[in-house]
Amino acid sequence: MYAQMVKTGVDHIQSKEEMSPEERAFQDRVDQDIKIEPKEWMPEAYRKTLIRQISQHAHSEIIGMQPEGNWITRAPTLERKAILLAKVQDEAGHGLYLYCAAETLGVSRDELMEQLNSGKAKYSSIFNYPTITWADIGAIGWLVDGAAIMNQVPLQRCSYGPYSRAMIRICKEESFHQRQGYDAMTKLARGTPEQKAMAQDALNRWWWPSLMMFGPSDAESVHSAQSMRWKIKINSNDELRQKFVDQTVPQAEYLGLTVPDPDLKWNAERGHYDFGEVNWDEFYQVIAGNGPCNRDRLRTRVKAYEEGRWVRDAADAYAAKKAARAKAKAA
Amino acid sequence: MTGQEALFEYLLRLGDNALILGHRLSEWCGHSPALEEDLALSNVALDLIGQTQLWLNLAGEIEGKGRDADKLAYLRDARDFRNLLLVEQPNGDFAATMARQFYFDAWHYLLLRELTGSKDARIAEIAAKGLKEVTYHLERSQEWVLRLGDGTEESHRRMQAAIDDLWMYTGEMFESDEVDQAMMRESVGPDLAALHEPWLGLMRTTAEDATLTLPQPGWAQRGGKRGMHSEHLGYILADLQFLQRAYPNATW
Asked: Is the ipTM above a cut-off of 0.90?
């Protein structure tokens, strides 16, 4: 999940009786699964929440380029290098679709970038962990993209048209990424003892942060309830986390790797795995800026943005000159 | 040097240029001036990595010692690399990257166009595939030279500095040695000297349109084709080859 704990600005869920006629008509459309399109009326809180959610997702794609980009020049074969480069490139593309989707809600990409660079906007906690070995690239594809897919597949059906359509495109690529990650892990798990140890170490380090991606339990959260009512959130955090654990544990077993959770156990009665408690203190610390890489991630992003300013300015100036010349020629 | 040895050397040059420049471009991913450029630079890098695989696999086949593209890319030391000095130069600022790219793309385009007529059908086939990609690379790098040259005062200054700075690495592209001559005799490869005039022509018109001043002919740094590299290559290889060197005989 690339957007965590998105606030809606509401303090309770309105009943239909409390809604204005416009709000009621809007909610009826959502209830009937009719997509909301940019030019239609929408509650201000819906618009603002969506901007927050979509931009958080976009920022996560952009920041997410860094931990994986860290290994592009060191990928172990030409094929792995091409796959990884294509994957990180896809993330830039996802960022672009999502910023475009956010722009339909009346905010510019530059504004959103400024929010990210100033540290005001959030992105997924997961990208504040370092990629120390090559196995981390496999683990990210397998676990992080796997967790992202859990959340994004249902969002293909979300109520906002541009977001839903962006999700459909993104999900196609994400499932390819996840398979590639699992394939890279498989090679390591079946490889030399050193490679297998590398794979196990990566699973040990990425397992819990991956579970944190779904965010803390939101069963009691008014924001989650509101987002679900608006159909911009489809499942609860706990549901998605459980689904992820149920899917991933057998995959780890197939690889011969051990999930680092002593409390992990199949519960035949529930038909699900039971698992241990996530360290939410760590999660809140990472969200607050104290993860191992928060500062580096932001500094790298700001540096690229600032150092690229003269290039963007030049492109604008050139385009303006060209247009002026074309106009002069036509006159 | 036998014909086969010359052909092997020739293919290494083609493959290593693509490998090292692709590597340099991949360093930009996530750090470029705009998302659109992260996408575009990665595209060019991906094309070049693909071309590397084709050239180096063929080189390995010709050599006949069981080396494939990965073995050649990951298990040779700097003195055995045959790329031009130009492509191993650091990325610098965006203007330096684009100047390097434009100089190389224009030459690469002219070379591949000739190689599509190579007597060696395998080379002609790879060249034809590469030419489609490189046609686009050249359009793009030329467009950036125009934008930056004729953009703002700052971009003009940076672009002029970049083309001045890298100019001395362009001469090597047009110099023939015994490998090139052997290929020419067999109608496998073109006369490199004959590419110089069309290349210069494109440089002149582009510089003029971009309000830039093309440097005067001068001393050419040479040696890359024969394995005499700058200090930069060793660091590229340290990155590129790390895993293969640290974990010998592992598969990935």
From this structure: yes
